[in-house]
Design brief:
Belongs to the Iojap/RsfS family. This protein is an alpha+beta fold and 136 residues long. It has four helices and five strands, in the order αββαβββαα. It has one domain: Beta Polymerase, domain 2 (2-Layer Sandwich), CATH 3.30.460. A hairpin with a 3-residue loop joins strand 4 and strand 5. It is elongated, with a radius of gyration of 21 Å.
């Protein structure tokens, strides 16, 4: 009999592939709808940002509502095996950012949303100039 030890086998479950961006967006939509978030806007930032493919911006009616919406987005993301890369702003809950990798969710109070105008910032140049903007 030899006193050699047998090699130890470590079993590792390989992670399943991450959900597609449309699945992730659908999960975010469902989470925000369930908690009656207001004015959902999805902005496609592919080609304009290396950080994410989509920004989702929604409003809550109070700081408690904003925090609850953000928590629900995190809960729904975890259901599809997406762990948030970060959640910022929960303490003040006027603007909570949930980073889901390909999708970044901004949950904001209406006054904060109006002040920072993220929709305008990320959509400048998307629309052709209207005839009112052209100089005759």
């Amino acid at each position: 009999m030899s006193n050699q030890t047998q090699p130890q086998t470590i079993k590792v479950d390989l992670p399943s592939p991450p959900p597609s961006v449309p699945e992730l967006l659908a999960s975010v939509r469902q989470a925000t709808e369930d908690l009656k978030a207001k004015d959902l806007v999805e902005i496609d930032v592919r080609g304009r940002s290396s950080v994410a493919d989509y920004l989702v911006i929604v409003s809550g009616t109070s700081t408690r509502h904003v925090k609850s919406i953000a928590d629900e987005v995190v809960r729904f993301a975890k259901k599809i095996d997406v762990m948030p890369l970060g959640v910022e702003g929960e303490r003040e809950a006027e603007w909570v950012l949930v980073d889901l990798g390909d999708v970044i969710v901004h949950v904001m109070l209406p006054r904060v949303r109006e002040f920072y105008a993220l929709e305008r910032l990320w959509t400048v140049g998307d629309q052709p100039p209207s005839s009112d903007d052209e100089v005759a």
